[in-house]
Amino acid sequence: MVYKLTYFDSYGRAENIQTPFGQIPVLEIDGKPLAQSFTIARYLAHKFNLTGKDEYETAVCDSIVDQYKDFISEVRTYWRVIKGFQEGDENKLKQEVFVPGIKKNLPLFVNFLKPNNSGIKFNVFKFRMNLLSGYLVGDHLTWADIVIASGMAELDNIDFEQLNGFPELRAHYQKIPKHFLKMVHYKLTYFDLYGRAEHIRQIFVVAGQNFEDVRIAREEWPALKSKTPFGQIPVLEVDGKPLAQSFTISRYLAHKFNLTGKDEYEAAVCDSIVDQYNDFINEIMPYKRVALGFLEGDKDKLRQDVYIPAIKKHFPFFVSFLKNNKSGFFVGDRLTWVDITLAHAFSTMDKTDSELIKDYPELSDHYRKIHSLPKIKEYLEKRPERPF
Ligand SMILES: N[C@@H](CCC(=O)N[C@@H](CS)C(=O)NCC(=O)O)C(=O)O
């Protein structure tokens, strides 16, 4: 039997795909299509013996999954806003929709992991098995475990606090084999500086994605250098697999987290602006190395001969993107990774070289706008201050 599952690699829309109900995922079984994600999961669970040991357990699995679907539709507006699919007041929706949805539904799932679950009251043996097994239904892994565990793992990834009141659900998903869950572990390694990693950190912040922020000391670097793909950091590990080059890392994450504009053209315009910014960084490097004390040299001369001419050459381009675009963002009508990257650069420059950026008020207005977005604002208030 040949199974072919079609879904997005990241986020997007499905209008142009031929599907039974105009939506994906679609599973093709020997070429025959099946739509509706929970129907697909139930079908496969039956095939692969993940529905419990009898018809009652099978129906209990269905009931747990149906309750989970109710939960998802209750919190859907909040979810769509934080994933960037729709505009909305994130904080208000969190208080009015998300937190009440959590408080109402998560205890219902916990009940299935506790002594008072429905099976237990009537059947001591079932109760025992449940309690010992740690599974939601009976004494085996079912698709209900996989649905709930992947949902809870994702919730924990996005908003760690919410699951603090439900240790049973956290323990439950941690017990489920990791390959069943959607959780990706991100580990970012860099020096304890902003440098070439700060825009990557802020992309994670905007996406609401937890990541391991490893900040190594200078003394640790020589031992690590030969273990990195190009002898440099930052390096991002995605479930243990390394990825180097700071802008490759941020572009990769931007695609994952829907921060590349609305279509392929806008994604390419984002790339072009970041490439231009990279040209700027490369041009000013001789000055920066001396100014930051990594190399000996005539700092004042380099400032006049290298730094100021590079600013005069590149900054007007950035300004004209903002002027032509009108939305206040660099590309299209929404936040992209370009805004995050350049806002960090201009705000840092405003701290160290305010007299140079004051000729470009559009760039200061831009970084203030980006840095007043609630998630970035909160992050900036808490992050460790570094000189560069
Ligand atoms: N083009 C690379 C440059 C990376 C880079 O220059 N990394 C520096 C720190 S900012 C580094 O690893 N320096 C230590 C070394 O080269 O040994 C990127 O953007 O990631």
UniProtKB/TrEMBL annotation:
GO cellular component, one term: cytoplasm
UniProt superkingdom: Eukaryota
Keywords of the record: Transferase
Documented EC number(s): 2.5.1.18
Transferase keyword on record: yes
Keyword hit for S-adenosyl-L-methionine: no
Database matches in SUPFAM superfamilies: GST C-terminal domain-like, Thioredoxin-like
Family annotation (InterPro entries): Glutathione-S-Trfase_C-like (IPR010987), Glutathione-S-Trfase_C_sf (IPR036282), Glutathione_S-Trfase (IPR040079), Glutathione_S-Trfase_N (IPR004045), GST_C (IPR004046), GST_superfamily (IPR050213), Thioredoxin-like_sf (IPR036249)
Residue span(s) of domain GST C-terminal: 54-203, 263-388
Catalytic reaction list: RX + glutathione = an S-substituted glutathione + a halide anion + H(+)
One Pfam family from the record: GST_C_3
One GO term of the biological process aspect: glutathione metabolic process
GO MF entries: glutathione peroxidase activity; glutathione transferase activity
Stretches assigned to the GST N-terminal domain: 1-52, 184-261
Family affiliation: Belongs to the GST superfamily. Sigma family.
Name of this chain's protein: glutathione transferase
The organism of origin for this protein: Diploscapter pachys
